[in-house]
Amino acid sequence: MNFDVDKIREDFPILTGKVYGKPLVYLDNGATTQKPYSVIECMSDLYSNRNSSIHRGIHYLSDKMTESYENARKTVKEFINAKSAHEIIFTSGTTGSINGLAFSFGENYINQGDEIIITAMEHHSNIVPWQMLCERKKASLKIIPFNDRGELLIDEYEKLMNPKTRIVAVIHVSNSLGTINPVEAIIEKAHQRGIPVFLDGAQSIQHLEVDVQKLDCDFFAFSGHKIYGPTGIGVLYGKEKWLEELLPFQGGGEMVDTVTFEKTTYNELPFKFEAGTVNYIGAIALGEAIKYVIKLGKVNIAEHETELLKYGTGKIENMGDVKIFGTAEDKISILSFLINNIHPYDAGMIFDKMGVAVRTGTHCAQPVMQRYNIEGTIRASFALYNTKQEIDILCEAIGKARTMFS
Amino acid sequence: MKAISEIQEEIIEEFELFDDWMDKYNYLIELSGNLPVIEQKYKIKDYLISGCQSKVWLYAEYNNGIINFSADSNAIITKGIIALLIRVLSGRKPEEIMNVDLYFIDKIGLKQNLSPTRSNGLLALIKQMKLYAIAYNAKYEKE
Lengths: 406, 143
Hints:
Chain A is α/β, with parallel strands linked by helices. Helices cover 40% and strands 17% of the residues of chain A. Chain A contains 14 helices and 17 strands. In chain A, the strands form five sheets. In chain A, strands 4-10-9-8-7-5-6 form a seven-stranded mixed sheet, sandwiched between helices. Chain A has a four-stranded antiparallel sheet with strand order 13-14-17-16, with helices on one face. A two-stranded antiparallel ribbon of chain A has the order 1-2. In chain A, a hairpin with an 8-residue loop joins β13 (322-325) and β14. Chain B has a single domain (4-141), classed as Sufe protein. Chain: A (Alpha-Beta Complex). Chain A binds chain B through residues 20, 343-346, 348-350, 353, 360-361, 375-376, 400, 404-405, and chain B through 21-22, 25-26, 29, 53-55, 74-78, 118-120.
């Protein structure tokens, strides 16, 4: 495999940085990823030389920017193999996408007594919008449980489905445990009963092959900043048949056809769902990030990350008194762990001073922590530019924390 | 009793002995042992400071115009910082606490612990200590 990680690191300016005089060991990619020059320079170029609002202008800059924006939409469409670019809606991120979807889907399809299925390992962004919807409509949430390894109990899932189930919303990959959920099976079983499925792809888009036609999911969302793109941009994919039926979740300019005070009609897809001035800079830069990933090859990236996961897991397991949470058969390169009885916050503070950036706490997945009866974990999440040497430094930090707090 | 500013200067001097972050943290770990520990009966939800990644309990007792604090946390570094706060603020009149400027935290290099992120409850803790002072002041001192 031709994956020269040292050469690849040169594409990311921040990785040469130091914190507290020590080399930055950035292992918080589950929170956000670093950006390659191509993405940074793209944004800089857009603002320096090309900035103009899109879709409505009649001048050169506007034309060019509109073209670039719609090309970015095509890039996303091809990246996730959607049938049509109309099915790609640019949003502010995964959270924005889910809130929008929950609202719109709720308006059309959720009534009193209806049920929505989610899992016990969701990120709060795939719990709260549905909870809010249930409160508004007097519907209820049903939860698919998971076992100690962090694997969903599919038998229990089947028992939850009934004639009142309106949608299944599932985290594709767990941000707290790393579990890759058996979404194909989940979707198949839901479709047998005519129930649509939404996948939260915030942690899958950058690590796994995502082919929305192959998966046959009805909706899919992800964030740009988690796949080496900028913040403030994300995607909501929806099958055209659904998006045609759904009402918009935001009203304003751009998403309209005709406006009078008596009645307003809406624009066609995808513009119906893109109110206001969209983050066109973010969308175009996201396109660049996707091109960067395609250039390296998702398969190559996945292979490298799998090696990191194997190496990291092996080293940590050998340390004896470190417990890993999330030991599913299928997982991505995330290591969520606790050292002895040391509070994750204490350990995190030590790691920080050694230049190691990890996330500590509940990872916006409080129900997961409650399931294990813990307050939180230390999470190291790897990306395409991480190295085995960085994992060695992580282990040194674990050793240091262990010594200091024993 | 020494003035608040005198105690803060003492603490700053103590920390100046350390160049290395690890030494500062080791010292905080040591100091965590000095924390006047909250009584078990007060280790309940009512006295839990919210907004912390770790659990922090705080109790304030008022006697003869003086407030004494006791606390606990399940994160050791947090415990050490609380021990310092209590060293500065315990045994004081409510109005001293209400109006205090806790500059020592920044001076000893722990300003990051004051950032308004969820990861630390220090801001919430200081706010609660001041709230106790305001409450006791309103209840007893204004009469």
